[in-house]
Amino acid sequence: MKSKFLRTSGFFLATILISTNGLRAQAEIGELSGSMSLTVGDGSTNLENPAYKIAGISLSQDPVYTGATASATWNAGSKTGVVTLATEEDIEGNTVPAFPTDHLASGTVLVTATVNGSGAISGFTVVSGGSGLGSTEPTVVIDDPDTGDDAATVDAAQITLSGGAVTGMTPTNAGSGYSSANPPGVTVDSGRHFIRLTSGAHEGRAFLIDSNTATSVTIGDTSLGEGEALTDLFSSTGLDNVEIVRATTLGEVFGTTAADVDLTGGDFPDTADWVYLWEPSSSGGVYIPYYFNTGGGVFDEGWFKVFEFFLVSPRNDTLIYPDESFIVARRNDNALNLSFDGALLTTDTQMQLPRAGQRFLMNNPFGADILLTELLPSDSIGQNVGKFYPHDTEGSGDLVYVLESDGTWSKYFHKNSNVAITEVATSTAIRLSGTGVASADISYPVDPNNLVGGHKCTISSITNPAPGDANMTITTGANHGLVVGDIVTIAGVKGYKYNDDNSKYLKANGDETSVQGEALVIETSANGTWPVISKTNNTFTIAKSANAEYMSGGYWATGTGGAGYSGTAAVYFIGGGGSGGKGTCTITAGKVSAISISSAGSGYTSTPQAIFSSGQWRESNDPFADVGNTTINAGAGILIKRNKDNSGETTYLKAYNPVK
């Protein structure tokens, strides 16, 4: 059987015993990579003593729209905002996007396919017809066949709508090469959707869409922090990068029929497995249990709240919010294997920090191991209401609990030192000696007279190689000291736009000209992050073709010293096949000015990543040793507890993606 929900981005389970009464927590995880196969239940549970699992599932892996915004507005009175999307023409001359009205906020349509003995689609069963689709038929996509490329299709004319819901459909092309024992998945563009920022300071934040027009979406305040307005997050003048993705529902994740639901169902909740979903409330929220009813008695087949006794319509469309954890209660003694497909999150994400006195249940936001200091970066620590509250005594500040593989929780806190950091330092010039780290540098050259804006090195010229030559050479303002393999960031470089063969300049309207002063000035292709492939004393070459004649300006750097450092900072060297490398940082005027290697580590076969920390993370059992480099495994269970005596407000903190 194919994975139940192929659009799912990730799934993780971690064992934890908890009380079923008064569950209070909040949650957030991120997208994970590939297919995950997970065992639920240990073979020794029973109705009176179920095994509880922390789980998480994230956004759909396939955006229905990727583009930019044109504008954003916010109405403080109604607490609603409108994001208008930038439009353009596709290759066929159609204006995109062109969403059917309110289809991004409709009920979810679930359809299954039947395959005949010849390998063709013989029909469809509408499991759930959705709602709110109006008179416009949704788009239907059928998975590729097992053999060949004759994929089945369904055109709009073959879809029947009644009262804004799908009541039936037939194949336009029945296709071939399908398996009757393993029918293809059918995706109908419907259901609630989220719009997610993929750039800027708020990259990773997702917002539930309440309604839409062809080119705009309306958003309420359910996805906002305390005191936030939509225009605090989206630019009122547009140019934010966004994607729109379909929301995940309870029915899509676990199934909507007895044949598809792997968890144990029943005519009554007492004999079924339960799934707890987070339900916000004015007092903070609570986890509400759901169970799958097999269709006995007055109930239809589907998902219901455990303590509902009169509702007869299933709650299959109940949303599982992006990065929201849920809890699975396995109530029988058979182990169960669940399989889900997904994709790796490739952007930074935003992690919710709850109000003072509340807790926040989450998972590692990424499909890779991260460090404690990456989960809560140094610039998210501080004593104002929107940051993780530090204290020299663990019981007086905010706490982070990490669920270990043996089912126990480790507790961490941040001391009240080095807590004014506003920019985290970076370094990409890391040198190895054998398989250990020998040195790491913030920037070149060392002479501060040749730097601009701190650790930004000046550029004198950049070559504009002929078309087909993929190598660009940068001449620096002074001898640089780089070596081949260093990673260099170039920014702020402007140039005069050339045509495709570099024979003439291009004007803003696309016309060619030989006059440099008439040429369009652009940010050139030199801007970006590149490895050095060759060098001389005052030049280095990157593998990038040019698209403009160098004009002026710009800088290059191999890191930044950050800002706001006031005490001893630490740096850890992660990846590259090795482990154990770390160093201490010299601070000058609030910036990291030098790095001293305290442990070379071993096993490095390629350049590792440098992760900077305040150096002030502590573990409950040892309040003296720095533990900022504690590894949090991919998908690990995490609980953040805000101290009730502090004045923390609900806010969002950026977590930096280690695989971005």
Overview of this protein structure:
The two termini are 33 Å apart. This protein has 6 domains: 11-60 and 248-340, no CATH class; 65-102 and 192-246, Elongation Factor Tu (Ef-tu), domain 3; 107-188, no CATH class; 349-419 and 614-655, no CATH class; 426-441 and 561-613, no CATH class; 448-557, Elongation Factor Tu (Ef-tu), domain 3. The longest helix has 5 residues, at 250-254. Strands 33, 34, 35, 36, 41, 42, 43 and 45 form an 8-stranded antiparallel beta sheet that branches. A 6-stranded antiparallel beta sheet has the order 1-3-23-19-20-21. It has 2 helices and 54 strands. By secondary structure, the protein is mainly beta.
What is the structural class?
mainly beta
**How many structural domains does the protein architecture include?**
6
* Number of alpha- plus pi-helical segments: 2
Provide the β-strand percentage band: 35-45%
Mean residue pLDDT: 82
Give the CA-CA distance, first to last residue.
33 Å
User: What is the tally of beta strands?
Assistant: 54
Low-confidence stretches: 1-38, 445-454
Question: Sheet with the most strands?
Answer: 8 strands, antiparallel
Helix amount = under 10%
Q: Give the C-alpha Rg.
A: 27 Å
